[in-house]
Amino acid sequence: MVNLLQQFNDESAKIAAKARNSLVRITGEKGSIGAGTIWHSDGLIITNAHVVSHGQVAVVLPDNEPNPAKVIAYDRDQDIAALAIEATGLPTIEVGDSRQVRVGHWVIALGHPWGVRDGLTAGIVIGTGENLPEVPAGREWIALGLHLRPGHSGGPLVNVDGQLIGINTMITGPEVGFAIPSHLVKAFLKNTIGLYAPQQDAVPTV
Fold first, then answer.
1. 72 in a structural domain
2. Which listed residue (79, 98, 182, 183) is catalytic?
C-alpha cells in the first residue's frame, strides 16, 4: 500500500510540474489576478473572458517576465478569451479530448488561488455535458468535485496524462466548480482566429 501511495504521489507531482510550464498569471489594472494557459508557442494565451474584462492586462510568464497583452478574441457568453503577447518559443500544453472525460476521472486544476503562485487543487469529475445545475443551460460543461478559488479562473484543468481537458471557470459551492471543455475552446479559436489546436512541435516534451 505504501508503495502504491508513493507512486501515486510521484505521478501527481510529475503531472503538476508539466502543467505548470504552460501556466501564466494575468494581472489587471486594479490588481486583479487570474490565470491563463499558453496555447501556442508564439504567444497565444487562453483564459476566461471575465478575467480580462476590466481594462488592460499583462501576462506574467513562468519565468516572472511580465508582458503587455492584447485581447484578440473574446466571447462573454462562453466566457473564453484569447490573448496575444510578443513572445516565441513558449512551452505549451498538450490538448486532450474533453469529449472522452467521464464521471469519476481524476483531474488537477491549476491557477493562482487568492494570489498564491502556481497553486493547484485535485479532485474528480462529477458531471459532464449540457443542462447541469447552477450553470447556463444549452452548452457543455465539466463539473468538478474540488476546491476552485478566485485566481484559478482561466487556468488549465488537466487529466492524469497531463493533457489539457478544460479551462477553469466558476465556483458554485465550496467543493463544486466548473470548467469549459477543451473541445469548445478549439471551436472558439477556429471560429474567431482560425487556430484550433497548438502546433505539434510546440507541445512540451517534459
1. yes
2. 79
Which residues constitute the domain of residue 80? 16-92
pLDDT at 195 over 70: no
Active site residue 79: yes
Torsion of the alpha carbons at 140, 188, 123 and 43, rounded to the nearest 10: 180
Q: Any idea what the CATH number is for the domain that residue 129 is in?
A: 2.40.10.10
Task: Return the number of other C-beta atoms located less than 10 Å from residue 192's C-beta.
Answer: 15
End-to-end CA distance of the chain: 28
State percent of the chain over pLDDT 90.
Answer: 70
Q: What is the pLDDT of residue 199?
A: 43
Catalytic residue among 22, 32, 41, 153: 153
- 33-84 residue pLDDT tens: 999 999 999 999 999 999 998 778 999 998 888 899 999 999 999 999 999 9
Q: Is 12 a catalytic residue?
A: no
Domain co-membership, 136 together with 80: no
Q: What does each C-alpha distance from 99 to 30, 110, 140, 191 come to in angstroms?
A: 37, 20, 10, 19
Total domains in the chain come to 2
